[in-house]
Amino acid sequence: MSQDILVTGKPGKPGKPGKAAGGDFGRLGDRRKYIPVLATASLLVAMFTVGGIRYEGFASGQVVLNVFIDNAFLLVVAVGMTFVILTGGIDLSVGSVVALSTMISASLVTGQGWPPLLVIPLVLLIGAVLGFVMGCMIHYFEIQPFIVTLAGMFLARGLCYTIGTDSIPITDETYTALAQARIDLPGDMFVSPSVVIALAVVAVAAYVLHYTRLGRNVYATGGSEQSALLMGLPVARTKIAVYTVSGFCSALGGVLLSLYMLSGYGLHAVGMELDAIAAVVIGGTLLTGGSGYLLGTVLGVLVLGLIQTVISFEGTLSSWWTKIFIGLLLFVFILLQRLISARRT
Amino acid sequence: MAAPAPILQMSGICKEFPGVKALTGVDFRLLPGEVHALMGENGAGKSTLIKVLTGVHEIDAGQITLGRTPVAFGSPLQAQQAGISTVYQEVNLCPNLSVAENVFIGREPRRLGRIRWKEMRHRAAGLLARLDIHLDVSAPLSSYSLAIQQMVAIARAVDISARVLILDEPTSSLDAGEVAQLFRVMRRLKDEGIAILFVSHFLDQVYEIADRMTVLRNGRLVGEYLTSELSQVELVGKMIGRELADLEELDDKPKELAEVERSRPFVEARGLGRPGSVEPFTLTIHEGEVVGLAGLLGSGRTEVARLLFGADHAATGELSVGGAPATLRTPRVAMTHGIAFCSENRRAEGLIPDLTVRENIVLALQATRGWSRPIPRRRQDELVARYIEALKISPANPEHLVKNLSGGNQQKVLLARWLILEPRLLILDEPTRGIDVGAKAEIQRLVASLADGGMAVLFISAELEEVLRLSHKVGVLRDRRLVAELPNDDDLTTGVLMETIASGGRA
Q1: B-chain residues within 8 Å CB-CB of A1?
Q2: Domain boundaries, chain B
Q3: Angle made by CA atoms A246, A247, A251, in degrees to the nearest 5
Q4: Distance, in angstroms, between A137 CA and closest chain B CA?
Q5: d(Cα B289, Cα B457) in Å, to the nearest integer?
Q6: Cα A115 to Cα A275: distance, rounded to the nearest angstrom
Q7: Is the peptide bond before B170 cis (omega within 30 degrees of 0)?
């Protein structure tokens, strides 16, 4: 038959068989969707270049690896946040769940003398259950995620203080050994075990998002929840799953933070939920859901970390400048997203 | 063709909603390999029939048989699994996902839980090619036109279950070329033996594509006909039924134009215009005069109304209201001049479905008083009772939620809201669209009596007969220009109006 069915609004480069790099997201179908991620990547490169020119000793691999080491917990938390934001939701409880996880770990390990191998799975379970409960409330009672997770945030933070109001140091041998362990890399560089764990989480999450039904349902739900329902997709299961994932990631982030700090404290990770959201947004994920990549989130975390590094290299600047730069960056990226989605419609 | 056994048989279907009998003893059958149109006016029960068929609503009585087995679906998903898929006017797909994903999501080809993208794309492209659609299936759905999106929805529906396909108003937002594409796809599916139930308001389209039609009226079956054996005129007669007589009751022609022109002009627009919206026009509306606006959809009818109501700003020209020059910066200013505007989108722009009839009616009056001076409840009740009676709003319960009213009654509530302000100019944009014939006649009668009482009315309607019946003079719009102003005398007929619309007033 003829080719007379014409397609209006042809996407970029139609008919060109792009390399199937792993899913439709890898095709050249619509390049505009990569603009936010590319913008973040260029920003990162630019920051690193400028830093390398300005400061002695900045342009080394270890500086980048240190950003990973210092932000491994944030990366894990941001991965969970990416799942939630992709469905169009938000999770404000992550910072508090991180703090609660450090507190439970510290009190059980130091106070009760439980073995870490028992404590860590328990903490992860608690985080996942908290997320699961919030997900159920959000879905079955049709309550705004904002308010449910706000309640979760207060609850988890408050629970920290029922365990103790002071910082609890962790002196357990396994913990200190893990915390001080270095994994040597060629070229005199090293990372901590936390970085390996965080990157493993990123890899698993990326696989889930792009190669499993759960992942695609996350995108579908974020694109149009109503349509996803009418197409017979398990929207309930998906929404509850993303908050469970976020709760689990927060708890894991808490475990990594307790390794980093070697303590549990109710005032750990205050405001980390906002850092995580900022990283996800700077990474190009739309707050309205349905669009974004995990790679962007990784880049977003790196940008946040690199800002801190730059400011510490500068030496004279107060650390509050970090917040100012993050604020400005967020403005720029939100505007960028606005422009892109406006052109699409 | 020899009539094969019906794939779908519905018999004696009854469905009652609180206060409304939506379907009474309706029979319907669908043969494999046919396009069957379901016809009827708004409120005839078409959507209800589709909804009970697809499991959105339960039936109160009757039986549905699919193939040879009796069925009762609890949800659209169950209906889909049994082989009945519905594609609605608004496309229910995910615009952020690729075309291939939209076809296969929830059913992706997998190996060990890993989605096989390559195979999915390949199969999606093959499926669409079967419908003669060739496109890049890895592009996001949002990069394609609505028509393509709709066909992707059809491809998905057909691939999931290929026995009965329901298309509910699929053509209402498509242009002529896209409709032709859709029809090509429908013919192809028909040839594959799929039974298609087609709902459309466009008679020409129905006659082009449908083999057979079932006509409903007021929730009852009128009959099943072969398209080839029923003329369009006969069809309309069957859809409207005996109630056609209702319309005739109204005096055929309104008062002589000369008589109303003697009264004072209320609104005079001289060279009023707005680039991109409507070209400068000059129009005078006298007190007690009904001015009709005719023209095709998008010809600028609504834009004229918006300028006169201050919803848009005029870039050129001047306006005088009640003899004094006026600048209508906002609708609020227009309202203080005694201008009321009943919008055509009564759902989106007018009524608040979750408020009661009373609350909806007093809304505009309250707005003019400001929130600090609430209308006393007793006064509200009086006013509302008066207008419920005057407009015969049914049910006559002021505490009824507006969303539970029929379209015609919702329109009356909206009218009441503006009438309560006692406007001097009432702008009605498509006040009778989508409401049943009885309510239509009532609204027309009301407009005529309001004008007799001295109110100026600007009446916009796509139905030329209605414009002619009510108006003293008719302004004809074409391509965003007021091309003619015709006095409604004995020489003016719908034929003349249509010619004017077609020729742009040059004839």
Answers
A1: 132
A2: 8-243, 249-338+423-507, 348-422
A3: 115
A4: 24
A5: 6
A6: 31
A7: no
Euclidean distance between the first and the last CA atom of chain A, given in angstroms as a whole number: 32
To the question of domain B249-338+423-507 being in CATH 3.60.150.10, the answer is no
> For testing the chain A interface, which of B78, B105, B121, B184 should be mutated: the one with the most A CBs within 10 Å?
B105
Q: Which of A1, A30, A217 sits opposite B140 (nearest CB)?
A: A30
Cβ contact B110–A228 (<8 Å): no
Within 8 A of B94 by CB-CB distance, chain A residues are 219-220, 223-224, 227-228, 231, 290
* pLDDT value at residue B500: 79
Determine the structural domain holding residue A184 and report its residue range: 60-344
Among candidates B96, B133, B139 on the partner chain, residue whose Cβ is nearest the Cβ of A219: B96
Can you say how many angstroms the Cα of residue B57 is from the centroid of all Cα atoms in its chain?
A: 22
Choose the CATH number for B8-243 among 3.40.1190.20, 3.40.50.300, 3.40.47.10, 3.40.50.2000.
3.40.50.300
- For chain A, what is the domain count? 1
Q: What is d(CA B248, CA B251) in angstroms, rounded to the nearest whole number?
A: 7
Which value does ipTM take for this structure? 0.80
DSSP H or E stretch at residue B270: strand B265-274
CB atoms near residue A194 (< 10 Å): 26
Mean pLDDT of chain A: 86
The A residues from 3 to 42 touching B (CB cutoff 8 Å) are 3, 5, 7-11, 14-15, 18, 20, 22-24, 27, 29-30, 33
Give the separation between CA A74 and CA A85, rounded to whole angstroms.
Answer: 16
Q: Taking CB atoms and an 8 Å limit, are A224 and B77 in contact across chains?
A: no
Read off the pLDDT of residues B343-397 as tens digits, 9 standing for 90 and up. 776 666 678 888 888 988 888 888 777 778 888 888 888 888 888 888 878 778 8
Q: How far is A31 from chain B (nearest CA, A)?
A: 10
